[in-house]
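Letters spell out the chain; backbone shape is given numerically. Both lines appear below:
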Amino acid sequence: MILYFWLIWVLPMTQHPIWGGRVGPLTGFECLGLASLAYATFHILRNKQAPAFLEMPQVCALFPFYFLATLSALGSGGSISPGNSPFVAYTSSFLLFLITLAVIDSMPRFRRIVLVTIGSYAFVSLYVLREWQREHARWSSFRPGWIAGDSNYFSCAALIAIFPALYLATSSRVLWQRLFCAACLLTICPAFTLCASRGAFVGLAVASIYSIWHTRRRLRILFLLAVLVVPASLLLPNSPLRRLLNPEVAEQVSEDAHLEAWRAGLRMIGAHPLTGVGVGRFKEEMPAYAAPGLDVDTIGHNMFIEIAAEMGILPALLFFSIFVFNFRGLAKLRKAPHASRFAKQMAAALSASLVALLISGLFISAEYQKTTWFALALAASLCSPVLLRAALHDPLRSRAHPPRSIDLAVARN
């Protein structure tokens, strides 16, 4: 299990010189991923029971999505060669999803991986804060985040940890967990603000409204978010709020690039609605679909448009359906009358994280990021049959009174 924890700990650090560097033909991430895959296989064989993948609609959508990605890479000019190709990114994300479901098969393991995830983003945030400290004097509008790919990718990924940390910091019954999550938020939120991603900030705002609406601890969460985000957003010269309200030339250029990428993506979808232009070929094909006289090539800046443009409409619908199935499963777990307190908290927190990720993904191409797929897998693991049974066992109730069968039916249907 330590190998999987290690993999999740370093997962956001895509540009780390060790984990992003190569050991022969493989990167450090891929070596850890293969070791985690070996452990997951051993764990399944030791338990003599295969995970109930096919009972989960998320996995039933994931398999055809990956199959269509493979066909697109083979038949439409996409690359399947080793290295940093988009197809390899999909393959590693596909395996990460299955590994996560196989390994997280108990509530104690789920709790640990949530805490590891929160700690991981706090640790990466220290890199981001240090980067800003070194470079901001030279560029007033400097945005850190190189360790995670860039500032937008870091901000989008950090949304995965912010809401579970908020919920545990305000309502956990274990003192050290409250203190740990509060300390992590004190590094994650300033780093998030300094990265000044407008799309991620909109995602955070929408998810905050969603979270406050669906929790009884509205005032605590609202107060903590306000203290951690609002002052820095108002005081820092380069914050997402300032970039939204007072855009400068660079922001206007970025907006124009986003709009043109969306238009070009929609033209690609119109020209190739079934097969797309090929996995990873959006940027290469964009000049042919851009407005006449506009010489530009860029990524899609919208993960749903980019998937549909590269692979066709059906894969984009399958990808979106994974979000939908996760929302549905988490909502029913949150409403189950006999679910454990922790399970309900995490169902609400992960729902908010997925809302934030979904909104921010409308502005950046997050579909190739392993952190995006890990967030989907983490939410799916809480909805898995084995964790569902554990969540519906209230530890305060007597063993002589197990959860009623109707509770399991409510959470599944």
The radius of gyration is 21 Å. Residues 2-245+339-412 form one domain.
